[in-house]
Fold:
Amino acid sequence: MMNADNWNEAYKRTKQLWGSEPDHVLTEYANPVPSGHILDLGIGEGRNSLFGAELGYSVEGIDISEVAVGRCMEALRKGEKRPIWHSGGVF
Structure:
């Protein structure tokens, strides 16, 4: 089972673990869903959270890896809508 230390090491070994583009399912179904709130569990490097925020959703996410959340903060783009991210476990 992966714990915070394992995930932190996985993120440290590579520049981008999941890539920079949002998941294709989100890009396909984002427009039919009215704006609102998104809770992103296991945000990784924030690619899906940033995508949702850019579309005007209010986004909050959490990831067990402090390294991943740090990368999310680095990836923030200037703009009015910004995701809120937390480092920690869900349980």
The beta strands are 37-41, 58-63, 84-87. Helices lie at 4-12, 24-29, 47-54, 66-75. Residues 10 and 17 are 8 Å apart (CA to CA).
